[in-house]
Amino acid sequence: MVVHKKIEILTKEYNAFVKITEDVKHAVKESGICDGVAFVITAHTTTGIAVNEGLECLESDIQSMMERLVPEDGEYVHGRFLHSYGAMAGNPTGHLKAHLTGNHCVFPIIDGKVKSGSAQDIYLCEYDGPQNREIMVTIIGE
Amino acid sequence: MKYPVIDMHVHPAFYETVCESEKQERFARDMYGLYKTGIFPEEVVFRQMECAGIDKAVLLPLDLTTVYQGVLGTNEQVKRLVGMYPDRFIGFASVDPHREDAEEVLREAFGRHRLSGLKLHPAKQRFYPMDDCMERIYSICEEYHKPIIFHSGMSAAPDALSKYAEPKLFEELAYLHPKLKFCLAHFGWPWIQETCMLMLKYPNVYADTALLYFDNAPEFYAQSFTVDMGRHWIDRSLRHQIMFGSDDPRLEMIRMKKAIEKLDMRQSTIELILGGNALEFLGMEE
After folding, report:
1. For residue A54, how many C-alpha atoms fall within 13 Å in the half-sphere facing its CB?
2. What is the number of structural domains in chain A?
3. Chain B within 8 Å of A74 (Cβ-Cβ)?
4. What is the pLDDT of residues A57-81, one digit of tens each?
5. Chain segment B96-111, per-residue pLDDT in tens
6. Where are the domains of chain B?
7. Domain B6-282 adopts which CATH fold?
8. Is the ipTM, as predicted for this complex, more than 0.95?
9. B135 touching A, CB under 8 A?
10. Which domain holds residue A67?
């Protein structure tokens, strides 16, 4: 059986790490699936999905690492008019950070619960906010 | 900051309160040429304003009744938004100058709805600034002491020829109506030296900073404000006539505001651009 659930979040910052662990657990519980896997997938190209320890200090370090790797004042070819949008592509840093982060994570489901390590939290990583964001939770199992 | 930060150039056509159907959403996409923009709640705008450090946004609807049989936000909707969020929004009116009832619409917008100014788009509404039909519009604005924001220069919207919006076409208006304040949005790009010429000669002419057509905002501002024109022209001579505008949602408030903050000018000039000049333009200075 496959069950698809959607999580919607209005992010608050230009760059932010939003914990969605409890939302994912809730989606898995609602699915009724006892044994299987859950995929957590972002619907966007300027966000990422990551798993890490949910500590403020680590969030700050990861943010600093991203800023070093992808500085806002860098030179990016993506800074140009996009005819398909009718607008300027002003968000190259968002795309590059999303590329580094990846678009999904996967967890096993055992006895109807997400099986994760005690230190693991699931993050929506916002790199071009604030925006309305959609995350799909696809649960496969029985 | 000495003044509130005011974004003088925001389009509300995709706001939930304004864009009430899929048909209206398609119309807004087609008219602006914003092909991947969708309806979003005002809450998203407020979050973006907070992140950008913008206190108030000036909402610019557009009446396209005779040319396209539609509107991008009505004056009534703008009035409603201002009523719902008076601390966030300042509302402008729009009227299609070719409407037979244009005078009535404009008097209602200023008199009954108490909107703060008028937005006109010569290229999209297809008029030249000195067409015969315009004098009645300008007279009403003067009568109510309301400023006008004109789209000027190139428009990224489809079906909008720049021949209607060259800055020099506005000189006669500045000359004949010295008490009427008006803003040439987008700095009249690519004719920014013409815009400078008008501002230098006519103190009732303003420009906004909603220009970004190549590169990113800091790079484009550097090209426009230090290469295409003298690097001291704004800071020394035009500092009271330039207003911050983002052109949201075509351009983003956060990055446009940050680019203004990085301009190599006196801090007092930056503060005038971000809000002081807007207060004066809107007649809201204390």
Report:
1. 14
2. 1
3. no
4. 999 999 999 999 999 999 999 999 9
5. 999 999 999 999 999 9
6. 6-282
7. TIM Barrel (3.20.20)
8. no
9. no
10. 2-141
